[in-house]
């Protein structure tokens, strides 16, 4: 039905086992995780997770409530409800014989990517951007021959002043 | 300030929490705690040594359900911890405050597959409300305080605290915090007033209302408010299995239990209602049957302290996240202000007439002329002969449903039953917990022959602590509830549900020093129960009942709840 993509930002206490609690809640309740990225915030005692998921409105509501119910979760925000910026980083290694090299570099350039590793027969480039930008660059590179691909999953931040602050969450 | 070790910190903290009873089992990883307990705290705590750690958690759970206070367990690492898992999951599903302390191998050995090491925090994460590994003795006191707060507030639940042996042996200064600020945990207790007003408006207009009350009413201690609300509005009340006792079963407004084995009138009433006031109940599949067919004409008001329970299985018009007692109190105030109670009751005359029709159409019934003992008759007689004043625990299966149908619970905290997880083997240890809490009350486990064998070893615990528990086994020689499904839905193929090879329960009781009694005919039921009730010590009664009796009404799984098989 209306299984829309949602980007959920979760502020958690930076303690052992918290990632397992979040991931376990998703798998135990059969919710989807399309991607999950996590790292400490400016304040090292908290981490921020960006979870990309999809589901009906009712499922998304449950996901958010179940996240809030976890004791180590400080704040949960469905960024898709407002304006937000999201970025993903991809490292992609392509076959690049002398003949293809120029093409790879041109595509990388168009997407404002960077070359981060080169060998005799391959080039590794990094590109960051929205999900659709990443998808576009991969589509263009795939005829050249992608041999390895690593994506970080999206990280996202709300626009303007909706920054997550560590205040209480209700059970 | 003098430093004391982790074991002393733990036990002093428990004392500060007002703990009087601990259920558990010793082992290498907790030997220091047991040592301190015996040397320094023997007059503070009553320690109940069970015969299996699963029973320790069920007993703590039974203690908690009967008293409203958290139940406490102490077990060793590895197998001691893993044996608690079913108990934790049982308490988790039914929102029971239990705090379990497990021993753990010393911190330097964690992760090394050390002797009796198990990642109990990992294992129990999905079946506890929260859990902790205490890695530093300095954190111990605060962690215990947090465990008690989390376990017993909001929607209660089990909390596990894992204690590595070196932490237990290390020393620290002890000061028990009066309270701790949990910035990430703040249950919503107070109802949102505009929602209460909307609810009051719907209540004032309803013509075919039903109150659907669950275990949350008992947890919140909201039974008096519920009764006041029902009586002022004239609204009939149906209860979930977990809710039984939150409203008097003998009250003229009680419709009895609803759901899969609910009464005909409760299920009919819910499905014809135009307003459903759900309080402390969670629209479980055993209650709703096919969700699309559940209360199709009703507007729903849903009061629950757990936001995840609301809009999970069913859409509701007025969600109210709050403690049931607070919300019902506010609702009563709002209705009083509206001054609508009298008019309200007059408007419900037709509805009450219809409820009476349904009651008379189909009452709970069984063959009263049978010479072979009908299990329902046993429960009915237990009810009569105890004047409804016993604390009843149940096992799981037909015995549980007959107990729910034929014992009328007038008081909260008098039925101890595993509702959410449906744990066979729960009832007996739960009865131990209740009996330890209330030595002078009558505690009866209504059991099945299958379930009782799952924790039968606890007869030794009962003997050791001289607990006068009565166990009434409805012995049908079958895993009866499963057999009933096989009869109804699997062409009478009784695949591995025949349990005729059972011990002689009378001799078994005697082997453990309890009194064993047996009744094999209907005429023997009453005198046998009387004899059991007159006996001071523990009694096991083997009621040899009709083998293939069924529990009715029955709503097949996934069917609409008016789709009842009546007999
Ligand atoms: C631990 C556990 N295992 C399996 C089941 C599945 N089950 C539900 S009822 C039942 C039969 C119970 O038999 P008994 O205790 O004799 O009760 P009866 O239904 O005969 O009254 C079984 C096996 C369960 N509920 N719990
Ligand atoms: Mg049986």
What can you tell me about this protein's structure?
The complex is a heterodimer of chains A (171) and B (567). Chain A is of the alpha+beta class and 171 residues long. Chain A has 2 domains: 78 residues, Alpha-Beta Plaits, CATH 3.30.70.260; 72 residues, 2-Layer Sandwich (Alpha-Beta Plaits), CATH 3.30.70.1150. Chain A is built from 4 helices and 9 strands. In chain A, strands 5, 6, 7, 8 and 9 form a 5-stranded antiparallel beta sheet that branches. Chain A has a 4-stranded antiparallel beta sheet with strand order 2-3-1-4, with helices on one face. In chain A, a hairpin with a 3-residue loop joins strand 6 and strand 7. Chain B is α/β, with parallel strands linked by helices and 567 residues long. Chain B has 3 domains: 171 residues, Rossmann fold (3-Layer(aba) Sandwich); 169 residues, TPP-binding domain (Rossmann fold), CATH 3.40.50.1220; 170 residues, Rossmann fold. In chain B, the strands form 4 sheets. In chain B, strands 3-2-4-5-7-6 form a 6-stranded parallel beta sheet, with helices on both faces. In chain B, helix 3 crosses helix 19. The longest helix of chain B is centred in the first third of the chain and has 15 residues. The mean pLDDT of chain B is 97. At the A-B interface, helix 1 and helix 2 of A face loops of B. The site of magnesium ion has 7 residues of chain B, from helix 20.
Topology of this protein?
The complex is a heterodimer of chains A (171) and B (567).
Chain A: E1 4-13, H1 18-28, E2 35-40, E3 46-55, H2 57-69, E4 73-78, E5 84-95, H3 98-110, E6 114-118, E7 122-129, H4 131-141, E8 146-151, E9 155-158
Chain B: E1 3-5, H1 6-16, E2 21-24, H2 31-40, E3 46-49, H3 53-67, E4 71-75, H4 79-82, H5 85-93, E5 98-104, H6 120-124, E6 130-133, H7 140-152, E7 158-164, H8 165-169, E8 171-173, H9 193-205, E9 209-213, H10 215-219, H11 223-233, E10 237-239, E11 254-257, H12 264-272, E12 275-279, H13 285-288, E13 299-304, E14 318-321, H14 324-338, H15 341-347, H16 349-361, H17 375-385, E15 391-394, H18 398-406, E16 415-416, H19 427-437, E17 443-448, H20 449-452, H21 459-464, E18 470-475, H22 480-489, H23 505-511, E19 515-519, H24 522-534, E20 539-544
Parallel strand pairs in B: 2-3, 2-4, 4-5, 5-7, 6-7, 9-10, 9-12, 10-11, 12-13, 13-14, 15-16, 15-17, 17-18, 18-20, 19-20
Antiparallel strand pairs in B: 1-8
Residues 448-450, 476, 478-480 of chain B line the site of magnesium ion.
